[in-house]
């Protein structure tokens, strides 16, 4: 089915992204997976290509284009290429929303040029060892002391955690105020007391650096407060809509790519003298997946269009994130089964996808939390 949400300009951008990935990412990704981290060079290359900060003001080095569909194209092509190492989506879709909306003029001038060029890599630190989806349960504190905040606590599972030069940290500036006591502080590389733990050893996404972060009485100047004190939880809830949309977009694209590869495999791989796709059970399995992906694509594109108009609701983003990631997990599992023994070999993309997509139902809010959000939207 033809997609109706993109123009010729978007498709030209898609061709450019594919060429970029073929040159700057795909040839190096296997090595990055061995090393557990990508080279900073790919971030600089992405900056030169205009793939970072597309929506940021031109005067600060950005593209000045707030059309969210360009980020959608980038995320789709990264997913189709299996290029999970470069954490561009965290930088663009997640952190970009905070920086674009909340930065003061001074902060924009200080951070955005490097953010857009790839010289400054960003991360966001919400999750803690004892607080994941329940952000109100965070224990990291930031106590005001003169012109500084004294930040103390730890975070875990932080994407871009090793490479990040700027980290947006959710901390309690007023522990007695509950959700209204959460603020966002920007911690910069080199601040005294800011330490990174190990690069975490994960089931998948091996090229993406994911780290523990420790804040031992880090003095963060008040000029690094992002937005207003006490409004951090509101900012997090607002920005999670786009984060969950981005995860859903990537999940859909990854599932479609693995399905197409499996369809080709089913046409050429033979068993008992005929292609495996001609066995009724396998043909029905492929037909089911094709239908599920087509239906989900329609809903996904509708959500993309609504986000472009600023109309996507939190429960809709939760539905998309829940459904797309669960479908992706199921599709990849069924496709691996159709590959037989070869599906268990890591040189086959379906095996890598099996490892990499599993986390999608967890990060950005678990499937269970998404259902809770949807249920509350029903007035229950």
Rg for CA atoms: 21 Å
- Helix content range: 40-55%
Number of helices: 11
Q: List the uncertain runs.
A: none
> What general form does the structure show?
globular
Q: What class do helices, strands and sheet pairing give?
A: alpha+beta
Question: What's the main sheet like?
Answer: 4 strands, mixed
Q: What proportion of the residues form beta strands (DSSP E)?
A: 15-25%
Mean pLDDT score, rounded?
96
**Sheet with the most strands: spatial strand order:** 1-4-5-8
Description:
The protein is α+β, with helices and mostly antiparallel strands and 380 residues long. The chain contains eleven helices and ten strands. The strands form three sheets. A four-stranded mixed β-sheet has the order 1-4-5-8, covered by helices on one side. Helix 4 crosses helix 7. The mean pLDDT is 96.
Strand-helix topology:
Elements: H1 8-24, H2 26-35, H3 40-49, H4 69-80, H5 88-102, H6 105-117, E1 122-125, E2 141-145, E3 148-159, E4 166-172, E5 182-188, E6 194-199, E7 210-221, E8 225-226, H7 232-268, E9 270-271, E10 274-275, H8 280-308, H9 314-339, H10 349-356, H11 367-377
Parallel strand pairs: 1-4
Antiparallel strand pairs: 2-3, 3-7, 4-5, 5-8, 6-7, 9-10
Helix pairs in contact: 1-4, 4-7, 5-7, 7-8, 7-9, 8-9, 9-10, 9-11
Please name the defining characteristics of this protein.
380 residues; alpha+beta; four-stranded antiparallel sheet; 49% helix; 16% strand; 10 strands
């Amino acid at each position: 089915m033809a997609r109706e949400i993109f123009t010729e300009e978007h498709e030209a951008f898609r061709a450019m992204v594919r060429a970029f990935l073929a040159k700057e990412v795909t040839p190096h990704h296997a090595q990055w997976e061995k090393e557990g981290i990508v080279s900073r060079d790919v971030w600089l290359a992405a900056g030169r290509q205009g793939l970072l900060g597309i929506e940021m003001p031109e005067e600060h080095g950005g593209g000045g284009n707030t059309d969210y569909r360009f980020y959608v194209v980038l995320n789709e092509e990264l997913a189709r290429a299996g290029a999970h190492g470069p954490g561009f989506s965290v930088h663009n879709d997640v952190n970009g929303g905070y920086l674009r909306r909340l930065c003061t003029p001074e902060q924009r001038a200080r951070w955005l040029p490097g953010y857009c060029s790839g010289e400054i890599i960003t991360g966001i630190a919400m999750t803690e060892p004892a607080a994941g989806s329940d952000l109100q349960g965070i224990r990291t504190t930031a106590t005001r002391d003169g012109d500084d905040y004294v930040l103390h606590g730890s975070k875990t599972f932080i994407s871009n955690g090793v490479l990040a030069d700027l980290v947006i940290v959710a901390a309690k500036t007023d522990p007695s105020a509950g959700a209204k006591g959460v603020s966002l502080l920007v911690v910069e590389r080199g601040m005294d007391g800011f330490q990174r733990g190990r690069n975490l050893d994960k089931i998948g996404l091996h090229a993406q650096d994911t780290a523990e972060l420790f804040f031992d009485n880090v003095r963060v100047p008040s000029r690094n407060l992002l937005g207003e004190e006490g409004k951090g939880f509101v900012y997090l809830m607002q920005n999670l809509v786009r984060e969950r949309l981005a995860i859903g977009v990537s999940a859909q694209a990854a599932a479609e790519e693995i399905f197409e590869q499996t369809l080709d495999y089913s046409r050429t791989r033979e068993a008992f003298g005929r292609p495996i796709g001609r066995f009724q059970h396998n043909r029905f399995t492929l037909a089911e997946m094709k239908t599920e992906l087509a239906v989900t694509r329609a809903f996904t594109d509708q959500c993309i269009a609504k986000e472009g108009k600023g109309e996507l609701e939190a429960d809709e983003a939760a539905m998309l994130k829940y459904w797309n990631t669960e479908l992706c997990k199921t599709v990849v599992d069924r496709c691996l089964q159709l590959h037989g023994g070869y599906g268990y070999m890591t040189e086959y993309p379906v095996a890598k996808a099996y490892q990499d997509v599993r986390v999608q139902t967890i990060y950005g809010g678990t499937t269970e939390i998404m259902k809770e959000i949807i249920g509350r939207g029903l007035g229950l």
